Amino acid sequence: MVIESQRVGPLGRIATCDPVWARIREEADEIVVTEPALAGFVLESVLNHDTLEDAVASRVASRLAHEALGSQSILHAFREAVAAQPEIGEAFRADIVAVYERDPACSRYIEPLLYFKGFHALEAHRLSHWLWNTGRRDFALYLQSRVSAVFSVDINPAARIGRGIFIDHGHAIVVGQTAVIEDEVSILHGVTLGGTGKETGDRHPKVRRGVLIGAGAKILGNIEVGACSRVAAGSVVLRDVPPNTTVAGVPAKVVGKAGCAEPALSMDQMIDGRDATG
């Protein structure tokens, strides 16, 4: 994916080395002109920052701020995390592009950064996961709690999530402690990646690359959802899903091939001409 920019001078250099951030700044300039009432908000959220990493961190921190823990403490932790693990910033960009390319309601790169709680919850998880892995588990659990309360997205800090993730609508999402979500996965609202009881240890699903999970689907237990497969809306998945297949129903069963090479990118939820709800 290449984003062209006509910027020259210092911003031209930004466009050359960071096209996603350059595009977002251009879109921010346009909002300031067309919606002057939002100028302060856009300046604070985008134009007053030098990097996309800082803009994302600031926006998420402002949404999670609480009298118990202010936005500056969260922002400071984000900056520590990005400095220690630059891949977090790379994930920000991949996630923004994923939203733009897969969500027909998203017409600009700036929209996930400013408005979309699924994106905000995901990037907050990237911070809480870093905190968890560096031994700061109480801070990580605090952020999980705030994200759940503010965004209705509950992702355990220990869960491992790749890049290029699209969480559509970002409501009523639950991801358990030992879950794994690989790169380029799309998840709609109401999805649970959970356990099946009080078992301990590795007990949550492993979602492989390129999977599309429909709204309301429940995937339970230490099972594998194979690469580039589809889980139809409302399904309850209790067994492994082979790669490149579609499963549907309660309990879910294989109903056919995935229908395309990369379901998470196409967002196609039709089964043989029928709705993926079956």
Automatic annotation (TrEMBL):
Similarity comment: Belongs to the transferase hexapeptide repeat family.
Catalytic reaction equation(s): L-serine + acetyl-CoA = O-acetyl-L-serine + CoA
GO cellular component terms given for this protein: cytoplasm
Pfam family, one: SATase_N
Presence of keyword Transmembrane: no
This protein's name: Serine acetyltransferase
PANTHER family found in the cross-reference section: SERINE ACETYLTRANSFERASE
GO biological process, one term: cysteine biosynthetic process from serine
Domain of life (superkingdom): Bacteria
Native organism taxonomy: Bacteria, Pseudomonadati, Pseudomonadota, Alphaproteobacteria, Hyphomicrobiales
NCBIfam families for the chain: cysE (TIGR01172), EPS_EpsC (NF041874)
GO molecular function: serine O-acetyltransferase activity
Record's keyword terms, sorted: Acyltransferase, Amino-acid biosynthesis, Repeat, Transferase
Enzyme class: transferase
EC number: 2.3.1.30
Annotated SMART domains: SATase_N
InterPro entries, alphabetized: Hexapep, Hexapep_transf_CS, LbH_SAT, Ser_AcTrfase_N, Ser_AcTrfase_N_sf, Ser_O-AcTrfase, Serine_acetyltransferase, Trimer_LpxA-like_sf
Protein's pathway: Amino-acid biosynthesis; L-cysteine biosynthesis; L-cysteine from L-serine: step 1/2
Start and end residues of each Serine acetyltransferase N-terminal domain: 20-124
